[in-house]
Design a protein that fits this description.
The complex is a heterotrimer of chains A (248), B (459) and C (770).
Chain A lengths: L10 E6 L8 H9 L7 H5 L8 E7 L6 E7 L18 E3 L5 E3 L9 H5 L6 E2 L26 E2 L5 H14 L11 H5 L5 E5 L6 H5 L5 E2 L11 E4 L1 E2 L15
Parallel strand pairs in A: 1-10
Antiparallel strand pairs in A: 1-8, 2-3, 4-5, 6-7, 9-10
Chain B lengths: L8 H8 L1 H4 L5 H25 L14 H25 L9 H22 L7 H4 L15 H34 L2 H10 L7 H34 L12 H28 L7 H31 L3 H12 L3 H14 L1 H5 L2 H4 L2 H27 L16 H24 L5 H11 L1 E4 L2 E4 L7
Antiparallel strand pairs in B: 1-2
Helix pairs in contact in B: 3-17, 4-5, 4-9, 4-10, 4-16, 5-7, 5-17, 7-8, 7-9, 9-10, 10-11, 10-16, 12-13, 13-16
Chain C lengths: L4 H5 L3 H4 L1 H4 L11 E2 L10 E2 L3 E6 L8 E7 L2 E7 L16 H6 L9 E3 L6 E3 L2 H13 L5 E5 L5 H12 L3 E4 L6 H11 L6 E2 L6 E5 L10 H13 L5 E5 L5 H5 L2 E3 L6 H14 L5 H10 L9 H8 L3 H13 L3 E5 L9 H14 L9 E2 L18 H12 L5 E5 L3 H4 L6 H6 L3 E6 L11 E4 L8 E3 L7 E7 L7 E4 L2 E3 L5 H8 L8 H15 L9 H11 L1 E8 L26 E8 L13 H5 L12 E5 H7 L5 E7 L2 E10 L6 E5 L39 E10 L22 E2 L5 H17 L1 H7 L2
Parallel strand pairs in C: 8-9, 8-16, 11-12, 11-14, 12-13, 16-17, 17-18, 24-28, 25-27
Antiparallel strand pairs in C: 1-2, 3-4, 4-5, 6-7, 6-18, 10-15, 19-20, 20-23, 21-22, 24-29, 26-27, 26-29
Helix pairs in contact in C: 6-18, 7-14, 10-12, 10-13, 10-14, 11-14, 19-20, 23-24
Classes of the chains: A alpha+beta (248), B mainly alpha (459), C alpha/beta (770).
The complex binds ligand MGD (2 copies) and iron/sulfur cluster (5 copies).
Chain lengths: 248, 459, 770
């Protein structure tokens, strides 16, 4: 009955950028799992679309040496999260399992946290989320439909964690490594996204994060993220050359 | 106050109470028009609350825009009142007397207006009760006092309370005066409001001591309010251009710059509208302009330091932001306008006495300063957020919507509207201060020598 | 190849949840509420969910999925971890299907058009069946059943139904794979598409096929790609495509040949390999035997000139391909969509002969035939040539009844066949579907169809995993059509069930009994992944696992010969098209709405395209330098004109397109298709010209040349990317790129120095080094 206890895990994601093909399966899986409202054309055009995980594409070089690099970015669940201390109502705070959680009910929508977040992964609900009545059938009952006027962001699929830990607790076992998969990591065809418990030294993610390619985003801010990236490999890059060297 | 004219008491009373005792012809039409603008603004605000912030131009990553800019702007303006009243009172600058009331009023009304902005810019304003007061005690959930957004309402409401008391205490003698000159419902109103003011020595003494105590008390608040407002930005470690270490004093001095300029604008208006040429005189403008030269230059030094610190660290994103602020369209245009209006045009002009004593020029230069100071806040807040982070999928521009501009205009109409409404019922120039000043400056015979009644006259 | 199925299942997370996942059918009766000890809102998870295994009919190449159902509603579609093709993973298109199930514009009633010019009005199923029966009365010898390419029982029912009336069953696929099937048949002697052992390959060389995004079996290939990169020395991927698809972006080496010269590129690669003596003589002999005319007359310089790919790049690709084996070559997509498509694909697949990659680890693995008699394991659309004849027949009034299902022919056919006019000459057009599409505008009878989530069937994935697979498809929710806020109306019927009901009954009563019958036949073979004492236990077991597969039953191949000597590509003319600049049009399948079949789903519409990040629209990708030269900016409305017509698209310049090529996504420009797709974007199919593959008669959909003119308007491209071109300019650029063996720290250091130098000049750089 140990690891199923609350607070004994430190959940984290290891993103192998080298495997990400930019397919966006994670994006839609998250959208479906977390009842994210439809990003209508207007919202997309006005930079108001909500996408708890986004796959950015960077260009390097010019034709014929052009390279497109993809990287999935979601809330980094910073241990030292700049979004947290600025929230006047503790609507976003750190829980004991290494996650930055968002309490929609408390949020008043100041968007201060979003200004504080260097990764720009917080999304504001400008409009009341609306679905045609029939599409409400596919809403996930485990996840709140956020009302207008509040912040939302990647939750590490906290409801899935709760469900798994509940199952483990009632079965009297520990949560097996890999038993909790977030919607995005579960969808990702190439296993670029890997979710697990960093507190367990034997877990897949704990081992992966020791890879010599590991880095975190914007480490100059000292946010200590729980999302660890493994660098993209360019088979033709000269070691020590710096990536900008490949510019055309 | 060299060319002082002897004014008789009756003339002073009649002239300074002309707002209350006989309404000027322009008053009703002006107030009505402003009232309509205010009404439109209120409807737009209500619509925005009803529909959601989607009606604004805000978008990822510019989550704060016109509203917060205007909030900072009005908080800045509010520094006028305390600057004029408290500081000048404590330093016993005699020329302050005719403008103290109006300056304090401006403080109260601009604070009231400023407070509206953080309220309506929130996604769910009706839940603000969560963080203005810790009402959820039963569940042990208190507001997060580490957040400047909690310190903001605390500081501002303290400032507002203090300023209101300050204003009221100074108003008491004039309320007594008005009570004695009115009949009917007005008399009843002034009777209640004047709190039994009889003008006896004890009341005068308490009124004076109260004013001085409040002045002293208000000074730290004065410094803290805009410091705290600056922390709204300074604690956001991730936003280049926001986390500057000098923000607190920088914001305070900027506030004084814009606040005092606003007082100048207002004095010129009062002089024209109520024909108070005898009370608001060129030497007042002269004094304020000289003060402004010092304040503005101090502020310029901070502006320069802000840029220097940013560049000295050779922190690439910080440099990139400055590059964007100063050299990229449309920020570069705004930056030039900002620099010209906030400093380069007005301050050199003020160096000339002919300008300082020319009411029209003072009016227009003070307006320029506030255009510039509004832009200063805009240029800190918006480019800071619209900065190019390493995440290029988040690079977006911000264009305020018509709704935001309407609410922005509403705030100006609303402050003016309140001022004019106030002027209908209360004197904008404090009679007692005016007369006190006259008494102090009357010559008295001591022996054969004719000397001023007070020796402390500064000017 | 003997892939151990259990390898894939090695205690992944899903197995722990297996007990829940594979619960038997039926709605959960009990609701479990467990509250965790800390009362935070995110702790409260209530309700028991059920996961049903089924197969994704019509929306993917036979992926096995798990559907999460709560209180009778489907909530989520994920990959079935037990399914040998899908292995628990997904594509961006999976969940979007839910929105077709619950689409607000789903057709809720049969609808009848009383006269060709009239409107549709609701009728009852009884009336509809009567009308259907009438339409069949005179249809003997004059019936055509049009469907999407169907494998599994639905395919056999459609074919048998057509046969019963001496009619035809024609499959329509706007992105024709006929050339691919033809090339695979002629070079490898296989009927089924083969699969590729990417996981174990050292070098993958692919042409034209967006196999990580939309081509073949993206889920299967995506999982294999992950394994490919996980290998000890990571694998090396070479991809040739004129425009950068997401597959090209994943490649280590991207070659961008002139469209239609892919076959020559393959031969060029072969000639380098042969000239440098990188492979054994016997392999060379086998290869040359497969190429009509051999490769002795092919020179690297000629190939470089013809394909527009630098000689040293071709050389690099060739050396890598031959030296780092096992390697595998395959192609498809736009590489085969030319007048010389069969030659192109033939030459590409023949490369495998050269490196001995056929039926070997890390190479091409052929797939066996169907495990069930009469049930097709492979399907492809009828050739464009056949369609032209068929449509001419319609126009001539020779066809009495056309039954259409899963194929929006009015949207998918080029203007040149004048499909609308032809349909008007068919007395009875009966269209099945869930959402009103462009074709239904010409239907006399519209029948509301169940989605695959509501109906029975089987699905045989193609390409399969290299052994026999039968995926089962079962209703995971009741037929639910939300008609209005008042509730759910169920009035849809399965296509198969309806055909069977209208048939003479000789080949089945309904789809469920066909599926159950087939499963019990499989049981009697005594082999495969499910073993059970009785047929009914076997059936339940197969349904719970989402199907049946037999890892021991593999395919085989024989080496043949590239089937064409027509090596040069023809393109359409642009001489008469007025003002503008000439471009080569390369249409591509959208990663989200596919060829348009998912256009109705808002999730699919909103999914950012991987390369442009655009959504909700039709854009055109052109080379950024060329765009600069032509003064074309992002968001410029472009008029794209071919001899078949004109469309409007939004310009999106980027560096990943070959100059002279314009890439336009397929699938938009529907006149109908529900509120989210109607009148949105432009239909690139409509302007394709009627060039055909010389061998198979398939539509050469990448052989159209167009004239591009600016319309003089500029609008915002609805894209997720910010308003500036995304290039790594900041020191903290999120994608850190390391060389082989380099650590992230070293790369970061190197980047930082480079950046400082760039930004602050040499002085600072030397200062840093002190
Ligand atoms: N690398 C680097 N390090 C530096 C500096 C630098 O430039 N670079 N600057 C240095 C300088 S100049 C300074 S001043 C220091 C600042 O260093 P600190 O003094 O550590 O500053 P704060 O982070 O403000 O920490 C103050 C703590 O007091 C708490 N606190 C707030 N109000 C109260 C109160 O009323 N009572 C009590 N008991 N606690 C309260 C706060 O929550 C916070 O935890 O950092 C120094 N360190
Ligand atoms: N946002 C924010 N504001 C704060 C604080 C905070 O924590 N956060 N803390 C407050 C406190 S306690 C303090 S003491 C002040 C400190 O305020 P500042 O003194 O402004 O502190 P810094 O930003 O540390 O340093 C200022 C600049 O000096 C540069 N510098 C570094 N070394 C040298 C040098 O050798 N010579 C010269 N000429 N320049 C150098 C730095 O690069 C930087 O650009 O800030 C106060 N304001
Ligand atoms: S990534 Fe942003 S939102 Fe997430 S914890 Fe860090 S600062 Fe907060
Ligand atoms: S938007 Fe919500 S979560 Fe963010 S700081 Fe404001 S109240 Fe807190
Ligand atoms: S029942 Fe649903 S809506 Fe009501 S309080 Fe609970 S979670 Fe909120
Ligand atoms: S962990 Fe869950 S919430 Fe976060 S991005 Fe992935 S799917 Fe979305
Ligand atoms: S699903 Fe995986 S491979 Fe696809 S975009 Fe997301 S992280 Fe990348």
């Amino acid at each position: 009955m140990t690891t199923a206890e609350f607070g004994t895990h430190k959940w984290g994601m290891v993103v192998d950028v080298d495997k990400c093909i930019g397919c966006n399966a994670c994006v839609i899986a998250c959208q479906a799992e977390n009842n994210i409202p439809i990003n209508t054309q207007d919202r997309v055009e006005r930079a108001r679309s909500i996408s708890w995980i986004r796959v950015e594409r960077y260009w390097e070089g010019d034709f014929p040496d052009a390279k497109a690099r993809f990287i999935p970015i979601m809330c980094q669940h910073c241990e030292n999260a700049p979004c947290e201390p600025v929230c006047p109502v503790y609507a976003t705070y750190h829980n004991s399992e290494g996650m930055n959680v968002q309490v929609y009910n408390r949020c008043v929508g100041t968007r201060y946290c979003a200004n504080g977040c260097p990764y720009i992964v917080r999304f504001f609900n400008y409009w009341e989320p609306v679905w045609p009545e029939s599409l409400r059938n596919h809403l996930n009952p485990d996840v709140t439909v956020r009302s207008r006027g509040i912040m939302e962001k990647c939750s590490f699929c906290v409801h899935r964690i709760r469900r798994e830990s509940r199952n483990a607790r009632s079965a009297g076992v520990e949560i097996a490594d890999g038993a909790v998969q977030t919607a995005c990591s579960s969808a990702c065809p190439t296993s670029a996204l890997n979710f697990g418990n960093f507190n367990d030294p034997d877990s897949k993610v704990s081992k992966m994060k020791e890879d010599k390619r590991h880095y975190t985003l914007l480490d100059q801010f000292g946010t200590d993220p729980n999302v660890i990236y493994l660098a993209k490999i360019d088979a033709d890059k000269k070691v020590g050359a710096g990536e900008a060297a490949t510019h055309g | 106050m060299q060319q002082r004219r002897e004014l008789d008491q009756v003339y002073t009373n009649r002239k300074l109470l002309n707002g209350q005792l006989d309404t000027p012809k322009w008053w009703l039409p002006t107030v009505s028009i402003l009232g309509v603008v205010v009404l439109i603004g209120v409807v737009v605000i209500a619509t925005m609350i009803n529909k959601g912030l989607g009606v604004t131009g805000l978008a990822r990553p510019v989550y704060w825009g016109l509203f917060i800019t205007t909030f900072v702007f009005w908080v800045g303006i509010s520094h006028a009142g305390i600057m004029i009243s408290a500081i000048l009172r404590l330093t016993q600058a005699e020329w302050r007397r005719p403008v103290t009331r109006a300056a304090e009023l401006l403080t109260v009304f601009s604070l009231l207006t400023a407070l509206v902005f953080p309220l309506i810019h929130a996604g769910r304003p009706w839940r603000i009760a969560y963080w203005i007061m810790p009402y959820d005690i039963s569940r042990g959930i208190y507001p997060n006092i580490r957040s400047p957004l909690i310190m903001d309402p605390v500081a501002i409401s303290t400032y507002l309370t203090g300023s209101t008391l300050f204003l009221y205490i100074a108003l008491l003698p004039d309320l007594g005066n008005l009570r004695d000159r009115t009949t009917g419902w007005k008399n009843a109103m002034y009777t209640v409001l004047s709190l039994g003011w009889r003008g006896n020595p004890r009341q005068w003494k308490m009124q004076t001591v109260g004013g001085i105590l409040l002045s002293a008390l208000m000074l730290p608040i004065f410094v803290s309010v805009h410091s705290i407002v600056s922390w709204d930005f300074a604690v956001a470690a991730a936003v280049e251009g926001w986390h500057s270490t000098i923000f607190a004093p920088y914001f305070v001095i900027g506030a004084v710059h814009s606040g005092v300029s606003a007082v100048v604008t207002m004095m010129a208006l009062m002089r024209w509208l109520w024909k108070w040429d005898d009370f608001i005189r060129p030497e007042h403008f002269d004094a304020l302009a000289r003060l402004l030269i010092v304040v503005a230059t101090g502020w310029l030094a901070f502006t320069f330091l802000e840029l220097t610190f940013a560049l000295y660290g050779q922190d690439a994103p910080e440099i990139a932001l400055r590059e964007m602020q100063m050299f990229q369209w449309p920020w570069n245009a705004l930056f030039i306008i900002f620099f010209l209006t906030a400093y380069a045009i007005p301050v050199p002009m003020w160096l000339f006495k002919r300008v300082r004593t020319n009411i029209a020029l003072m009016f227009w230069t003070s307006i320029l300063v506030n255009i510039g100071m509004w832009l200063e806040r805009f240029l800190i807040i918006v480019p800071g957020l619209a900065r190019r982070t390493p995440f290029v999928y988040t690079w977006e521009a911000y264009r305020p919507s018509a709704v935001e501009w309407t609410i922005f205009i509403w705030s100006f109409a609303w402050v003016t509207f309140l001022m004019l409404l106030f002027s209908k019922f209360f004197p904008l120039v404090p009679l007692f201060e005016q007369k006190e000043s006259q008494v102090f400056t009357e010559d008295v015979m001591i022996g054969r020598a004719k000397i001023p009644a007070i020796i402390r006259e500064a000017d | 190849m003997k892939l151990n199925r259990r390898e894939f299942l090695a205690l992944t997370g899903k197995t722990a949840a297996g007990a829940v996942i594979f619960a038997a059918c039926g709605l959960p009766e009990r609701e479990l509420i467990v509250q965790s000890p800390v009362d935070l809102p995110e702790d409260l998870v209530r309700g028991e969910d059920a996961w049903y295994a089924t197969s994704m009919g019509g929306f993917s190449n036979g992926d096995g999925v798990l559907v999460r159902v709560m209180q009778g509603r489907a909530k989520k579609i994920e990959g079935n971890p037990d399914h040998p093709v899908t292995r628990g993973k997904a594509t961006a298109r999976f969940d979007a299907v839910l929105q077709l199930l619950y689409h607000p514009d789903r057709i809720s009633n049969p609808q009848l058009r009383y006269s060709k010019t009239g409107n549709l009005s609701n009728i009852s199923w009884d009336q509809a069946e009567e009308r259907f029966a009438n339409a069949l009365k005179n249809a003997d010898g004059a019936l055509t059943v049009v469907t999407n390419p169907l494998r599994g029982h639905l395919g056999s029912v459609a074919s048998k139904f057509a046969a019963q009336y001496n009619g035809k069953h024609m499959a329509f696929d706007p992105v024709e794979q006929g050339v691919l099937h033809g090339a695979v048949k002629s070079v490898l002697g296989q009927d089924q598409l083969p699969t590729f052992d990417i996981s174990n390959a050292q070098t993958v060389l692919s042409f034209g096929a967006d196999w990580l995004g939309t081509w073949g079996s993206p889920t299967q290939f995506g999982v294999k790609y992950g394994e490919f990169r996980e290998q000890h020395d990571r694998g090396y991927m070479i991809h040739a495509e004129p425009r950068m698809s997401l597959t090209a972006a994943a490649a280590d080496l991207w070659l961008a040949p002139v469209p239609g010269t892919e076959g020559h590129l393959a031969l060029g690669i072969a000639s380098v390999i042969i000239d440098e003596g990188l492979v054994s003589a016997s392999n060379v002999a086998a290869f040359e035997a497969a190429i009509p005319g051999g490769v002795s007359n092919v020179t690297l310089d000629d190939v470089a000139a013809l394909t527009g790919v630098d000689a040293d790049r071709i050389k690099k690709a060739a050396e890598r391909f031959a030296e780092h084996t096992p390697s595998v070559a395959f192609g498809g997509g736009s590489a085969g969509a030319h007048t010389n498509g069969s030659f192109n694909l033939g030459a590409i697949y023949a490369l495998n002969i050269l490196v001995g990659a056929i039926e070997s680890k890390g190479g091409i693995i052929s797939n066996p035939g169907s495990a069930i008699d009469d049930v097709p394991a492979s399907a492809t659309g009828a050739s464009f040539e056949a369609w032209e004849q068929e449509i001419a027949n319609w126009r001539a009034g020779n066809v009495e009844t056309v039954i259409i299902r899963g194929a929006d022919i009015v949207h998918g056919m080029p203007n040149s066949v004048a499909i609308r006019e032809a349909l008007e000459h068919v007395p009875n057009v009966i269209a099945f579907g869930a959402i009103h599409d462009d074709t239904m505008d010409f239907a006399d009878l519209v029948l509301p169809e169940e989605t695959f989530l509501e109906s029975w069937g089987t699905e045989i994935p193609e390409p399969g995993p290299g052994y026999q697979v039968v995926g089962t498809q079962q209703p995971v929710v009741g037929p639910t059509i939300s008609q209005d806020e008042s509730g759910l109306v169920s009035d849809a019927r399965g296509f198969g069930d309806t055909l069977l009901a209208m048939s003479d009954g000789s080949y089945g009563r309904d789809m469920e009994s066909l599926v159950r019958g087939a499963l019990s036949d499989l049981h009697s073979t005594g082999r495969g992944s499910v073993s059970a004492a009785s047929a009914s236990l076997f059936t339940n077991g197969a349904l719970q696992r989402g199907g049946w597969w037999d890892t021991d039953n593999n395919g085989s191949s024989s080496v043949g010969r590239v089937a064409t000597s027509a090596q040069g590509a023809n393109y359409s003319d642009t001489d008469t098209l007025g003002e503008g600049n000439d471009f080569h049009l390369v249409p591509f399948v959208s990663n989200s709405i596919f060829d348009g079949r998912l256009a109705a789903a808002p999730w699919a519409q909103q999914t950012p395209d991987p390369i442009s990040s655009a959504s909700w629209s039709t854009w055109a990708e052109i080379n950024s330098i060329q765009a600069d030269q032509l003064g074309i900016k992002e968001g410029d409305v472009l008029l794209i004109r071919s001899t078949s017509g004109e469309i409007e698209v939004l310009a999106y310049p980027h560096p990943g397109v070959r100059p002279g090529v314009i890439g336009i996504p397929m699938g938009q420009g529907h006149r109908k298709s529900g509120r989210y797709a109607e009148d949105r974007g432009s239909n690139v199919f409509s302007i394709l010209v009627d060039e055909k593959d010389s061998e198979t008669g398939a539509l050469a959909w990448a052989a159209t040349r167009v004239r591009v003119q600016r319309a003089g308007k500029r609008v915002k491209v609805p894209k997720f990317e910010g308003n500036v071109e995304a290039r790594p300019i900041e020191p903290g650029v999120p994608v850190l790129v390391v060389g082989v063996g380099e650590t992230a720290v070293d790369a970061q250091e190197a980047n930082h120095h480079l950046y400082q130098k760039q930004f602050l000049g040499e002085r600072k750089e030397s200062g840093d080094d002190e």
